[in-house]
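Please produce the structure of this protein holding NAP.
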Amino acid sequence: MSPVTRPRVPQTGRISRLSSRLPAGLRARAARWPGPLAPPVEQGTATPRIAIIGSGFGGLGLGARLRQAGIESFTIHEKAASVGGTWRDNTYPGAACDVPSHLYSLSFAPKLDWTRKFPEQPEILAYLEGVASTFDLGRHLRFGSEVTAASFNDDTGNWRLDFADGSTDEVDVVVSATGQLNRPFTPNLPGLDSFAGIRFHSARWDHDQDLTGSDIAVIGIGASAIQFVPAIAAKARSITLFQRSVNYVAPKPDKEFSPRVLALFRHVPMARRAYRASIWLRFDVRWMLFRQNSRSGRLVQKAFDKGIRPLVSAGLTEQAVVPDYPVGCKRLLISNDWYPTLLRPEVTVVTAPIDEIRTDGILAGGQNYPADTLIFGTGFQSTGFLAPMQVTGRRGVDLHQQWSDGAEAHLGMTVTGFPNLFLLYGPNTNLGHNSIVFMIERQIGYVLTCIRTLAEDRVAWLDVRPEAQAASNRKLVAELSRTVWAANCHSWYKTASGRITNNWSGPSARYWLRTAWPRLADFERSGAAATRPHSGHDRVAR
Ligand code: NAP
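Below is the modeled complex.
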């Protein structure tokens, strides 16, 4: 496993000296900013007890930053047996990321030797394992620890956590880092249980099955399917794709890094930083494409229309390759082998709706398609943030009831009535054009500032004011209404009623600006914190 660059844990010495040279006003702001100029919390500060749920990019990233800030009073609860989140769960053949590796990693934990421009799943998972070990997070991680409920106690100002094994715990702060795409969705198709063959979801790939010579049916053709179908097509005797909507698929400008480039990144840190920044900037400029009727959107639409035409001449039907919605409304996909795969003799694309699943195949549009293996590429239950965890806030308010019309949070991170509950990759923080790791880092910085405030100002809890949440969401809804996602297409970015609950409303630079300096005036604070322990604490077994 290649190393993640050694971190500073905790940051002392040089940082404190630099910080002390700043003018007093700036120094006070820098101390609140969880960037490199922030000194670690003072020794002896009673830091809050923090429960982080999930050990993907969000949970591990926050753990690493807490340690850099000198805060050790946290536990990362992970329901599985290892770290990695979505990159641990999605092991299907061909799994890879469509964001370049140097941007799809934490800026404070760079990996100098990514092997290729677009990383594959094993390398990303190894990177995350590297982050956990480099930042020595092992002693904070608790595996097989599934939080089933979190409830705020109005009297004590603490959160009670309930775990699947029946134990409980009490903490001051809860940070959910469970992601948006962690619960696979399998449609309840008529006759599904009668299917006599093998079946599994792409996010729970059954590696024990040798697919050689199989008759495979794939239901759902999205970002995952366009990666695993090309990887298994050559093995199958037949592969039938049940495609409800068509994707826009652009070429993937992937390549391995040459030894010269790897040496440059290793020896000239500025070159790697500049490369990373240039990717971020180029990707953020692409945001224009996602505004309704934008000039760049029209140009890209034209380019796609032109690129698709030869596929129809090559023998693919229009229904199989021509989308009926504007470009960008669903996630834009990249692949070099998708269209060549569709042209393979063993591949059939079925666009008729599925009538029923039978013992030995699928009936669609009145025709039977034989299959002995059924793979679902039907995505995730994306709009039920935090589910199935039960979350109860002040005065017994149930979070999922409050969100019955769609999830909503202040800048995607805090919800009024749920003090000291912070969300990473929460509602309206997903992107269609840039790296989600960049967004998660902005959130980690914001949450860290709030946690420092709790520790250093001895505040018991912070609860975002309803008017602050309402104002940021009014702005968000107005901005989202001008995006291409509001067009008439079906996507995991929206609820069944069409409310866009998953995506951020602009370039990631805008999110950076709005979250760089948390406005503490946006929060109601409770009085002094009760005495807090400094470090780990034990769970109470029932
Ligand atoms: P997805 O893109 O949401 O695709 C799900 C597919 O299942 C869609 O084609 C959908 O059709 C279809 N479907 C859903 N219910 C169906 C039903 N009842 N009958 C027939 N078809 C049905 O899911 P995914 O491929 O798992 O990807 C989800 C997200 O994961 C991506 O958008 C991306 O953000 C992330 N991902 C990222 C990468 C990466 O490179 N970073 C790779 C893989 C996944 P409709 O379109 O008609 O709804």
